[in-house]
């Protein structure tokens, strides 16, 4: 079940509610009891990484694959394995 975030438009009280997708949205504020709760937009709390996702496994051979777990590296950084592979290829 997803967690929905709500904010009262009258008093500003914020809360989270664990609800089924099919449940109607909450409307009554638990603080001021006004019918002014509004559902907020929030981001999902998970990340799809690892093998089996489009970015890592399902791109065509012509496209360069990239590892999403390494996406935090800047383009100028190289891993230790890259330099040792290059040295082995040159000798």
Q: How does the overall form come out from the CA principal axes?
A: elongated
- Give the helix/strand class: alpha+beta
Return the average pLDDT rounded to an integer.
Answer: 74
Strand content: 15-25%
In the predicted model, the low-confidence regions spanning at least 5 consecutive residues are: none
Please give the share of residues in helix: 10-25%
Using only C-alpha atoms, the radius of gyration works out to 24 Å
Total DSSP helices: 2
Spatial order of strands in the largest sheet: 2-1-3
Report on the biggest sheet: 3 strands, antiparallel
List keywords for this structure.
alpha+beta, 91 residues, 16% helix, Putative regulatory protein FmdB zinc ribbon domain-containing protein
Describe what you observe in this structure:
The chain has a domain at about 5-40. Helices cover about 15% and strands about 15% of the residues. It is built from 2 helices and 3 strands; from the N terminus they run βββαα. The protein has a 3-stranded antiparallel beta sheet, with no helix packed on it. Strand 1 (about 5-10) and strand 2 form a beta hairpin. It is elongated and about 50 Å long. About 5% of the residues are buried.
